[in-house]
Amino acid sequence: MKNIFDTHAHYDDERFRDDLEETLTAVHQSGVSLIINCGCDISSCKSTLELCDKFSFVYGAVGIHPHEAEDAPENAIELIRELAKHKKAVAIGEIGLDYHYDFSPREIQKDIFEKQLILANELDLPVIVHDRESHQDTLDLLTKYRPKGVVHCFSGSAQMAQEIVKLGMYIGLGGAVTFKNARKPLEVAQSIPLDRLLLETDAPYMSPVPFRGKRNDSSLIPYTAEKIAEVRGESAQFIIDTATENGKRLFGI
Length: 253
Ligand code: NI
Known about the structure:
eight-stranded parallel beta sheet, single chain, 9 helices, 8 strands, binds nickel (II) ion, alpha/beta, TIM Barrel
């Protein structure tokens, strides 16, 4: 398969440290034409922009992940605003809420998420949103600020997906649709309008079956696309082509 756009990856992760160059080259040759690397704290945002400078097919998102909210510097928003000036910074992300791990106190998570939603609107950039077991608060804040963007690795119900779509946002789906217990993600994959679907890996995490538990990379997206194609009665290449067009439209690439 070709023309694949991985809208969410973390190639600055230490699990790629020893073979990053070979991996990205192989991924590109396998049919992946675009990747967005997502920063999670100031240092990984800087690494993300270095990847953008080095690889023509890599674009970047800059933001503070909810896990890192508590440790973010006081001037984090100012720093993100500066980093977002890079010509290949196409989104504010990865931002959001995570009530599963609760690595940062919820009030601090909400505060920095809200500030970054405001920043994204001010810069007219889309957001890449992480929502884990925080559906209602996420939906409330997205409804309040109405940013452009995507809820990545979407784990809500089909009904919530419709709410997100109504806000004008996109739904990111990855390896989770191939998991054995994937009832909810598959209902989402089947029911959302196809012009709101984005494909993603969250590499190195969330490898699709049959690679579950192993290191993920963008070349495995066809397994995710196949599963979505199956429940929608389309070809996997059609799903990939449509999702790539959607991603280019959203991120202005
Ligand atoms: Ni991520």
